[in-house]
Write a structure and sequence with these properties.
The complex is a heterotrimer of chains A (229), B (649) and C (256). Chain A is mainly α and 229 residues long. Helix content of chain A is 72%, strand content 0%. Chain A has a single domain, classed as 3 helical TM bundles of succinate and fumarate reductases (Up-down Bundle). Chain A is globular. Chain A starts with a helix and ends in a 5-residue tail after the last helix. In chain C, helix 2 runs antiparallel to helix 6, helix 3 runs antiparallel to helix 5 and helix 5 crosses helix 8. Classes of the chains: A mainly alpha (229), B alpha/beta (649), C alpha+beta (256).
């Protein structure tokens, strides 16, 4: 037991926490993206799907119970992910207090260098997203109707001169990079990588990043280009 | 120093070799040793200087036994000692190849390879424990090369007739050192060994005729401090850097051994210097050291020079019939695989005769084109890829396309502090291990034997013999040595020398003088020596030394990290040691192994020994700065190996 | 060739450092980078200045002592970028006449600068002390061939054991992480049957010590692997992670 307790204290343990919570989020995002695509099936079906999320597991589970279990898993994951990321980042800054006058990167790419900034940006986006489509905060969403998600989507993206849609698209770019490096990285962190699989894992990382973000992106783009109304 | 003033003492050196058949004496001797009770061992303090194969393994082993060990070294980590650079391999008489190897054969080959100038009993013990070394290293996790069946691989090395060399790619020294280093760190963690990185030994403390401690300088703070113990173990390597250019690391120095010599330890056979035939030739005055290319290259490379002296055409334009494959022509049966000393001398001879190749005409070709044609580029790449890459990064030439250029360089010193069978020097309580002692290689060391000797001394000899000594003298639990006047005297002497170096404030850097010394040594006391050249060196070295003490400039402060000061102390010692080396070479008018006197050669130009007059160890006793040292002769008797003239025709 | 050098000068660990400009002429293309610094130092000494302190020893790429960041790359880079080598193996023909070269020490909280370009790397030794060995005392070994080891395992072990402990991985890592170094030793010993007994305790202890020394965490950028002169692979980090996770499930806690 002591060994298990010690584990999250280590730099590697923190990374493992990030990897596992990252897996949860990749699953959540994939499911979320798949659900979003139902918007193309029309208002009725889409609203039915949204309601279906709340009646999941009925009649054994009560209204929204399953949804809340899933929400708690997702919330715990992101809190753990951020706690590990921020404590590690602080530690990493302490480990390298002095900077080089000149420092040439040989291997690190844009995605790897911006993980922490991308992560922070995505976090703020999630708050905005919740205010926008979940809580329907007045001023963030022009005409939120709790029982009509389809209306909320169309109205939410097409209002304010498409600014919300553009915010979503920018956030998705951050998400793509974050997912790309995160997906490859989690295999490395969990010790499931080696040079033989490295190419395949990079391919998988690109696939995960692109499928999820492009899937999400079609909705605001669809609204902007009039495919959805 | 004058060769005519040497006072000779015979019969006063006790080699302490026990009586009995050579196969039995080490076992008997171990049984007869006095033991220290395990619970009392921590009361004994042992000082170990050096953390290479010999020092690291000795410190770790003594720590494991429970002694209170203190290990000093000049690098920032024990893992960097120059044993790390050995490439080829380590010999052992395992006979895993079933090719007729045995302890006796390894013993026999080593004595013969040393040109009959080593002590039989020591060499026999070396061959005996060689097998334990391999067992020990494998248990530690040294990743020796293996066959597909999982068994250890062996190769033949340096022209040996049996495959007895164990290796770990081209990094055998590194891997063996890491084994010893890890064992040492384990003891550091256990608290039995205290490590002193970046700490240099600058003097030996001798009290009542016993070695009792050392004076050190902390190379970061400049603090001079003495450490006292019940025994002192020196494992500080050889003195090859006396020649300025050598394959030794830049920091390798003889100061610990030299200061011990000046405190009364005898220095044996300093003239036995091994010159390795396959090194990259210097490319100019800026050259700071020479890089060894593994001897294994001679297995597939053919050595040649243009037949016409002064021929400056590129190698490819020289037709086959104008190429002089001098080793193959002179030594048809061994060809390019003749022993190191023979290959080196022949290279020098052809270069001196104007056949040298390269910009500075200071090398010979080692040509792989024939082997590439026969085996294909890939096979050569698999065998020597790393070495070829290294050659390319240093010279900017591609040895797959143009022949390598090689030239001999100082590589290893067989001489060193005199020790008896127990590896104890002429000062009781001062033990000397590895390259720092003179004991096992005679006048020439065989390939893959240095690693064997370092680890034999450190793992399997010194831990017993040091324990035996400690059991006999008892522990100084009251630290009575601390108040002895010798301690303060030694510290004061060290301080005085440093103050002197700092105060000269002359015109030239330390390197300037070191380079001057190197030229004299290489030209006068190098591969081929003669009376006139040696006498000239004996005259020049004191001149350079005098000029050094007049005109050296050591900038900065002594109370600080000061690399110039570190070098200055070392070069000051080389300037004295070089003179003794030349004197020893002058007095030994025979040729043997690495010591070649032009006056003593066979009709074919091979080394000719003079067993009647020189079958002894020359152990030199310090008699004062600049004065001629006394010569103590330890006669060498060969009861098991028959004396023959080496022949590689 | 002629060079403009910008070299980090720092009198002691406590003192502030700065880059100082030097001009150096008549540098041979055939000299090594360290020989170029030797030349500079000889000129500084003969002019009465203090030479630049830098660590070096074997000068053949194996001891791991030399440690310079050259133009932003640990150990510098050869012009063709064929193979990463240690500074002592880097030759001046990789630079051009008139070039400006910036030379800095390894930078990491766990490697404090002692003077100029010299840093203190004893943290690495303490990581090894925490468990980077197989606990076998002298004299207790069985016959070397009593335990066959598949060639493939021995080769992986050797790949990892090739680490020279220079610290370039830490210097290059934006997080100052020592994971490549630590994982190399864990792999070297952990893949061998001799090292199996202590495998999990070893990884727990060495990682704990690595963290204690103040090294940063790994963010899988691969900068360490890119500068490593001995081609130590990121695979070893993955392996170390795997072993640490297994150790956690086995309930092993550090004993250092």
């Amino acid at each position: 037991m002591v060994g298990v307790m010690h584990f999250p204290q280590t730099t590697i343990g923190k990374k493992v926490i990030m990897a596992i919570s990252g897996v949860v989020w990749i699953g959540f995002l994939a499911a979320h993206m798949f659900g979003n695509l139902k918007v193309y099936t029309g208002a009725e079906h889409f609203n039915e799907y949204a309601e279906g999320l709340r009646t999941l597991g009925a009649p054994i589970l009560g209204y929204a119970q399953a949804l809340w279990v899933l929400r708690i898993i997702v919330i715990v994951s992101i809190v753990a992910h951020m706690w590990a990321a921020l404590t590690l980042n602080q530690r990493n800054r302490q480990a390298r207090p002095a900077r080089y006058t000149e420092h040439k990167k040989l291997s690190a790419n844009y995605a790897t260098l911006t993980m922490i900034y991308g992560g922070v940006a995505i976090f703020f986006f999630i708050i905005y997203h919740l205010m926008h489509f979940t809580w329907g905060v007045a001023g963030v969403h022009p005409s939120f109707i709790a029982t009509d998600p389809y209306h909320n989507v169309i109205a939410g993206f097409s209002s304010y001169g498409y600014v919300p849609a553009i915010i979503y698209l920018i956030a998705l770019v951050f998400l793509a990079f974050h997912l790309f490096h995160g997906t490859w990285s989690l295999f490395q962190t969990l010790g499931l990588n080696n040079k033989t699989y490295d190419g395949a894992l990079h391919g998988l990382a690109w696939a995960v990043a692109l499928v999820i973000t492009l899937g999400f992106a079609t909705v605001p783009l669809g609204v902007m280009f009039g495919l959805l109304s | 120093m004058n060769v005519d003033d040497i006072k000779v003492f015979e019969g006063d050196l006790d080699s302490a070799v026990p009586e009995g058949p050579i196969q039995q004496i080490w076992d008997d001797h171990r049984f007869n040793m006095k033991l220290v009770n395990p619970s009392n061992r921590r009361k004994y303090k042992v000082i170990v200087v050096g953390s290479g194969l010999a020092g690291g393994s000795a410190a770790a082993s003594l720590g494991e036994m429970g002694y209170n060990v203190h290990c000093f070294f000049y690098q920032d980590s024990a893992r960097r000692a120059h044993s790390v650079a050995a490439q080829g391999g380590i010999n052992a008489a395992k006979n895993y190849r079933n090719d007729g190897d045995s302890i006796f054969r390894l013993f026999y080959d080593t004595v013969k390879g040393g040109d009959y100038r080593s002590r039989e009993a020591n060499v026999y013990r070396l061959a005996q424990v060689s097998n334990n070394i391999i067992d020990q290293c494998v248990a530690q996790g040294v990743p020796f090369a293996r066959e597909y069946g999982g068994m250890l691989d062996n190769r033949s090395f340096g022209g040996a007739q049996v495959s007895r060399t164990f290796y770990a790619r081209g990094q055998t020294g590194q891997q063996l050192l890491l084994g010893a280093y890890q064992a040492l760190q384990r003891q550091a963690h256990a608290g039995t060994v205290t490590l002193y990185p970046r700490t240099e030994m600058l003097d030996l403390i001798v009290i009542d005729g016993r070695a009792r401690g050392i004076v050190t300088r902390n190379m970061i703070t400049g603090q001079i401090k003495s450490y006292l113990g019940d025994a002192v173990v020196l494992a500080t390597g050889g003195y090859g850097n006396t020649y300025f250019l050598s394959t030794n690391a830049k920091g390798c120095n003889a100061s610990a051994a030299w200061r011990a010599y000046k405190r009364g330890a005898y220095f044996a056979n300093p003239c036995y210097v091994q010159i390795h035939p396959t090194c990259i030739p210097p490319s100019g005055e800026h050259q700071s050291k020479l890089t060894l290319m593994s001897e294994s290259l001679r297995n597939d490379g053919r050595i040649w020079v243009p037949r016409q002296p002064g021929d400056r055409r590129p190698a490819a334009q020289i037709p086959e019939e104008e190429r002089y494959y001098y080793l193959e022509e002179k030594y048809p049966s061994f060809g390019n695989l003749v022993p190191r000393d023979v290959a080196s001398r022949n290279a020098k001879a052809v270069v001196d005769a104007g056949h040298g190749v390269g910009e500075l005409q200071n090398g010979v070709y080692l040509d792989f084109s024939e082997a590439i044609g026969r085996l294909g580029k890939q096979v050569i790449k698999d065998r020597y890829g790393n070495l070829f890459d290294m050659y390319t990064s240093i010279t900017g030439e591609d040895p797959y396309e143009v022949p390598m250029r090689i030239y001999p360089a100082v590589h290893y010193t067989m001489g060193g502090l005199w020790v008896d069978y127990n590896l104890q020097s002429s000062i009781p309580g001062l033990f000397v291990l590895g390259e720092a002692n003179f004991s096992d290689h005679g006048a020439n060391r065989l390939g893959a034997s240095a690693l064997m000797q370092g680890l034999a001394d450190g793992y399997f000899v010194a831990p017993y013999t040091v324990g035996n000594y400690l059991a006999r003298v008892g522990a100084d639990t009251g630290d009575s040595a601390a108040s002895a006047p010798e301690v303060a005297q030694a510290e004061a002497a060290v301080q005085e020398k440093i103050d002197k170096l700092m105060s000269i404030n002359g015109k030239h850097s330390v390197t300037h003088f070191h380079r001057e010394l190197g030229k004299v040594m290489w030209n006068g006391v190098g591969m081929a020596r003669n009376d006139a050249g040696l006498r000239e060196a004996l005259q020049r070295i004191p001149e350079i030394r005098a000029e050094f003490w007049e005109n050296v400039r050591v900038p900065g402060s002594a109370a600080d990290l000061n690399q110039s000061l570190e070098m200055a102390g070392r070069v000051a010692d080389f300037l004295e040691l070089g003179e003794l080396l030349a004197l020893d070479a002058l007095h030994r008018t025979e040729s043997c192994g690495g010591h070649f006197r032009e006056e003593s050669q066979t009709e074919e130009g091979e080394a000719k020994r003079d067993d009647e007059n020189f079958s002894y160890v020359a152990a030199w006793e310090y008699t004062g700065d600049g004065s001629t040292p006394n010569l103590h002769k330890e006669p060498l008797k060969f009861e098991y190996v028959k004396l023959t003239q080496r022949s590689y025709k | 060739m002629k060079l403009n050098l910008k070299i980090w000068r720092q009198p002691s660990q406590q003192a502030q450092g700065q880059l100082v400009d030097y001009q150096l002429d008549n540098v041979s293309e055939d000299s090594s980078f360290l020989e170029m610094l030797d030349l500079l130092n000889e000129q500084l000494i003969e002019n009465g200045d203090e030479p630049v302190a830098f660590d070096h020893d074997c000068r053949e790429g194996i001891c791991g002592m030399c440690s310079l960041v050259i133009n932003g790359v640990a150990h510098g880079q050869d012009r063709e970028k064929i193979k990463q080598v240690t500074v002592c193996q880097l030759h001046m023909r990789n630079f051009s006449d008139g070039e400006t070269i910036v030379i800095e020490p390894w930078r990491s909280a766990a490697f404090p600068v002692l003077k100029d370009l010299i840093v203190n790397r004893t943290a690495f030794d303490r990581i090894i002390q925490a468990g980077g060995y197989i606990s076998v005392s002298t004299g207790s070994a069985a016959d070397a061939n009593a335990l066959p080891i598949p060639k493939k395992k021995a080769d992986v072990s050797m790949d990892a054991a090739a680490c020279i402990g220079c610290g370039a991985c830490v210097a290059a890592c934006p997080n100052g992480s020592a994971m490549l170094f630590t994982s190399a030793k864990i792999t070297h010993l952990g893949v061998l049957p001799q090292g199996e007994t202590e495998r999990y305790q070893r990884v727990v202890n060495m990682v704990a010590q690595m963290d204690k020394e103040g090294f940063g965490g790994c963010t899988n950028m691969g900068e360490c692997e890119a500068v490593c002169p001995k081609e130590i692979s990121l695979d070893f980090i993955a392996r170390m992670n795997r072993d640490l996770i297994s150790a956690a499930f086995r309930g092993i806690s550090p004993t250092v």
